[in-house]
Amino acid sequence: MTGYVIRRLLWIIPVLWAVATITFFLMHAVPGGPFDQDKQLPQVIIDNLNRRYHLDQPLWQQYVNYLWDISHGDLGLSFRGDRDVSDLIGRGFFVTAQLGMLAFLFAVVIGVGLGVIAALNQNGPGDYAGVFFATIGASVPNFVAATFLIILFAIELPWFKIAGWGGPGSFSDIFHSSEYDLKKMVLPVISLGLLPAAYIARVTRASMLEVLRQDYIRTAKSKGLAEYVVILRHTVKNAMIPVLTILGPIFAFLVTGSFIIETAFAIPGVGRAFIDAVRIRDYAMIMGSTLFFALIVAVMNLLVDILYGAVDPRIRYG
Amino acid sequence: MTFLKPWRYLLLPLLAVAAVAAFSACGDDDSGATKTPSAAADEAAPADQQKVVMHSVEPQYFDPQRSNFEQDIAIERMLFRGLYQLEATADGGVKAVPAMAAADPTVSADGLTFTVKLKAGLKWSDGQVLTAQHFVDGVTRGCDATVASPYAYLLQSEDQGGILGLKGCDEAQAAKTPAEQTAANAALGIKATDATTVTVTTLTPKLALTFVQIFSLWVTFPARLDLITKFADKWTDPGNIAVNGPYTLTAFTPKDNVVLKPNPNWALSPKPKLQQLTIKFIDDTETAFRQYQTGELDQARIPEPEVVTAKADPKLSKELLVVGSARITAIEMQMNNEVLSKFNVRLALSRAIDRDTLVKVVYDDVNLAAEYWMVKGLPGFQGRDKFKSVIGFDATAAKKALADAGYPNGQGFPTLRFTIIDCVTCKAMAEFLQKNWKDILGININIEIVDSKTRSQRFNTKNFDLFPGGWQLDYPDPENPLVGLFNTGGGNNKYECSDPAIDKAMADAAKATTVDAHIKAYQAVEDLVVTKLCGIAPIFQGALPYLVNPKLGGVKANGTIDAGQPGNWCAECWFVKKQ
Fold first, then answer.
1. Which of residues 55-94 of B touch A (CB under 8 A)?
2. Smallest CA–CA distance from B62 into chain A, residue
3. Complex-level ipTM
């Protein structure tokens, strides 16, 4: 097991190198640079800006310098305000992670709950309600859901706020109660968690139905076990393996930020920062964000693979 | 059926969400401050001058010499102030008045040297005395190549596409080594002859008008080299920064907001009334509109399509403020293109544009239809009538012009590209024009949608046919929308306008020795540019729709000089009204 984890961790290095290389050259191949604007700056000023950010060097040299810098943990400076990219990603991720984890919690609780209800009540009202939710959740884009929720629950019924995030902005603030505002948390969490909740509900329902038809469930029931024991100990636990498979990518998806939700609620998260970086060709921020996302996805995949072993004893690590 | 019982536990999260909603709905309001009698007639008590939240796009810098965009400048005007400042006049015009300067500059007989005395008793927010040397340091940074100021051109010579022609600035911009830089900076034509006197030398004679306008702009704001040396790029962080403007920077959260409080050492009048001004960074105006509706913003720029929504709402309609901007939008035509190089083709395209209907249909009458290039609000503004009969909408004249160009009813006319960015009104405008030109002229236009950086790159490399562009004033002088844009080889002349008559008129205008002659000379340039459609066909003057909370007073909007927020040119004038 330890050897397996170490091997997988070491594999992350070439993966990150490949992501860095592809992103670096694609980024420079895209038309338009950071200092392109309709009201063009005089050439001497563009030259000075390029020199300041070392963009006057040949591309291969910029690439080599970048690899050298990131190998020393230096992600560079953002063209937006010369702020440290690591700091910007750290700040953004701290907020995005809170949003993502709450949305993940919402999605798991609602998704698994509805999936189980639907499966246990197949072709009954609970099933129809669960399928209805899953269909709506999967087919309504989150910007539509966010807009709908904002209009209904923030404008027409002024229950919630929508200006920014209601959690702490930095780690040092997590024990300051003044940093928390539940009113600002509810709508972005629901908007972001709706689609994954629907997906989880569908997978849970299908998996539960399959497990409920297994011989060992029939055996457990015939041995006189209480219904809730059969459901919780034998059915739900075994039905969770396919669900677990999708939870890793869903978690990675949620904690790496949603540009749409962060924009709709003006949340200072890393998802919005990444899209902004692409829009203004903030090369250092694009590279830093991409590498960070790649790292999160790689680590989440590893964690899921490890969790398989905990849930399914048939799985062994060589 | 016993399975049903455990399910109920699964409803708990839903109940929890509902409970949070109900609890939150009963929460405290933020506005519960104690009221005390106010001194001024319509101003609320100082205790109520709190928590005003404005909207802005996130700035890049709070460093005046490094700034390039409106959102940066909007906040820098609150934090810093130059020797002069642009002020709105009662008649809707603009004038530059002394700010840190005690009076207008003294100009030498040859028009090359300007001497400015500072007001007495000026201080930075940290208590240090504001001296003439700080202004010298600010301008020196503006010219310094290592700072790479995007607006250095305002200080450079005409030869380099610049305006003021500060002596030595071109050399400082061209410096390649630290030694060259140090020498060039030391040789700049700006000196502090004593603690309160700044002397500026230009390469060619300049009008006092030009001088005071340039020295009201951010690139000439004073700088604190001691802080810049100590904190390097972090000198503008809260806690590090010292300012000489009406507000100080007390908190900054990237992507989220900035918090300003009054500068206790602000010596000018009026003193800021707002005890805390929060500026939220919201890139999407639709999001800002929603947040204004929930009461979380006191001012918001809203998208043009929502003006109809605001007008239809009894409450919002009273809070809607549409401010004419200092931007003219035009169809820019690449004159290197064989077809577009023909005057009659450009005339046909211009005369086939029904500007009034375009503004009504696409922009809900927010913008002003225009055939002029120098915007309303600018000294020398000439209005529509003069140009409408020459290049304005006339379907018959448009058809005739196209036939005269050799393309009767559009026969043989090639398909041209119309390059736009992906935005709702951009696409609506492009489709409107595409239909106008098809219906009236019988020609086809391909709409090409790209992202903004690609579009800029295409424009700057002259790789376009038709392009909805224009010009946003940097400062309210008639030379600003003309110099460099229409003279042969001008830095922003991407449509390749090259006309000897325009070049001559431009050269003559540069020699004007009085303000009146200066204005008249540039009006003559505008006449030539517009009637010859030299790369541009103006279509409308933009306007900016805002919603402003009626509790907010002192908002003196002037689109010619505002940046970011209505009345931004005098943020110290804002206050909360008595309820």
1. 58-61, 68
2. A81
3. 0.86
